[in-house]
Design brief:
The chain is an alpha/beta fold. About 35% of the residues lie in helices and about 15% in strands. The protein has 10 helices and 10 strands. A hairpin with a 2-residue loop joins β2 and β3. The longest helix is centred in the middle third of the chain and has 20 residues. The chain is globular and about 55 Å long. Bound molecules: 6-amino-N-hydroxyhexanamide and zinc ion. The site of 6-amino-N-hydroxyhexanamide has 12 residues, from loops. Its cofactor is Zn(2+).
């Protein structure tokens, strides 16, 4: 399987993440991508491909122009306002307030943010754009006939909604790639999010549509981020009713439980008969992950990949979460190896 990678992910080198009331070194750090890349090379999983540069058009098929413009100019506006630290949202259009975009950068940050965990810094825009290029280049490889491709995206994307950033995400790489499949003639695309966290952005982008089936297996939002979406009664709306499936699991969930959800998801996908499968691949389901509570082992990722391979669908993997940097390379490579076993 080919891997698409861009060194421009290094432009996303935030120094602060608000966590537990203090600013910590962000969990979403450059060493994650470098460790995965090294393992892909060590395991000779396939060619490493540089991304093609795309313009904003594919992004604007998913995200609003106002939001994209905000992301492009946020850092310079923040710096021009003389703020000493990284751009971190502090004020939100909370319940009972006006849902309008103010002029002031503090107001604009809060309007477009789903949380205060994700700072915007010099270089964030460039890295986020490059991450989309990585996803779209891998998507094109699959559309052109590759059985599968791995988009080593950083920053990740599945929490980003049409005009919302957070959870370390800015552009929804998987949603942009799924839309590209459709714009290139696919009739139906399935998105199966295996990250520990609910893919709230992906769900909301396609929630009222029936040409994209969105499925997510994740930790109970009553107990973990993103807190306010991802429950099992969210099945889609309007034309999209029945096109969203959330499978929610408690703390301590082992692969033996999790894989039953995977089976349910695979059956739903088979019934949907998609032309392509997009897998937002987070490995924060790992037993050693510092911010999550499932108990998957490194070996389990081989079985996960193998099951996904048995779907027999053109498949695009987009890198999402996973914060045990020591284990992330093995865990990601194991999914891809398991998938490739059937090639
Ligand atoms: N800082 C709150 C948790 C952010 C989760 C990021 C992630 O891994 N999403 O999949
Ligand atoms: Zn995650």
């Amino acid at each position: 399987m080919k891997t698409v990678y861009s060194p421009l992910h290094h432009r996303r080198t935030a120094t602060s993440e608000l966590d537990g009331g203090v600013l910590i070194e962000p969990h979403e750090r450059p060493s994650r991508a470098e460790t995965i890349l090294q393992r892909v090379r060590d395991q000779s999983l396939g060619e490493i491909v540089a991304p093609v540069n795309f313009d904003l058009a594919p992004i604007l098929r998913v995200h609003t122009l106002e939001y994209v413009s905000f992301l492009e100019h946020c850092w310079s506006e923040w710096a021009a306002a003389g703020k000493p630290g990284e751009a971190i949202p502090q004020f939100w259009p909370a319940r009972g307030m006006r849902q309008r975009v103010p002029k002031d950068i503090d107001g604009r940050l809060g309007y477009y943010a789903l949380g205060a965990d994700t700072s915007i810094t010099d270089g964030t825009w460039e890295a986020a754009r490059a991450s989309v290029d990585v996803a779209l280049t891998a998507q094109r490889l699959v559309a052109d006939g590759e059985r599968a491709a791995f988009a080593l995206c950083r920053p990740p994307g599945h929490h980003a909604a049409a005009d919302l950033f957070g959870g370390y995400c800015f552009f929804n790489n998987a949603a942009i790639a799924a839309q590209a499949f459709l714009d290139q003639g696919a009739k139906r695309v399935a998105i199966l999010d295996v990250d520990f966290h609910h893919g709230n952005g992906t769900q909301s982008i396609f929630y009222r549509r029936n040409d994209v089936l969105t499925i997510s297996l994740h930790g109970d939002p009553d107990l973990v981020f993103p807190h306010f979406l991802g429950f099992e009664d969210e099945i889609g709306e309007g034309d999209g009713e029945g096109s969203n499936l959330n499978l929610v699991y408690p703390p301590g969930t082992p692969f033996s439980e999790w894989r039953q959800g995977l089976e349910t998801a695979c059956k739903r996908i088979a019934d949907f008969r998609p032309d392509a499968l997009v897998v937002p691949l987070g490995v924060d389901t790992f037993e050693g992950d510092p911010i999550s509570f499932f108990k998957l082992t490194s070996e389990d990722y081989l079985a996960m990949g193998e099951r996904l391979g048995r779907m027999g669908l053109p498949t695009l993997f987009t890198m999402e979460g996973g914060y045990d940097v020591e284990a992330i390379g093995v865990n990601v490579a194991n999914v891809l190896t398991g998938f490739d076993q059937l090639a």
